[in-house]
Specification:
Oligomer: single chain
Strand content: 5-15%
Distance between the termini: 65 Å
Strand order of the largest sheet: 1-2
Number of strands: 2
């Protein structure tokens, strides 16, 4: 924390205690929110699909023996 002319200058790693809980930046438009949720869903679907592929690969390897 640096003091400049009586004001407190918070460096990148420190939070201003008076601003606690108040978001500084962020796009909260409906379009942005929808895009974020669809990206999260796509990521979750991809992870689920990879897990299913791993399970099917294991099962098919066991059947071939």
């Amino acid at each position: 924390m640096l003091r400049v002319g009586g004001e407190t200058n918070y460096s990148a790693g420190q939070n201003n205690p008076q601003m606690k809980g108040i978001p500084i930046m962020g796009d909260k438009s409906p379009k942005a929110v929808h895009k974020q949720s669809s990206q999260k869903q796509a990521k979750a679907d991809q992870a689920k699909q990879q897990k299913q592929q791993a399970v099917f690969a294991k099962q098919s390897a066991n059947k071939k023996k």
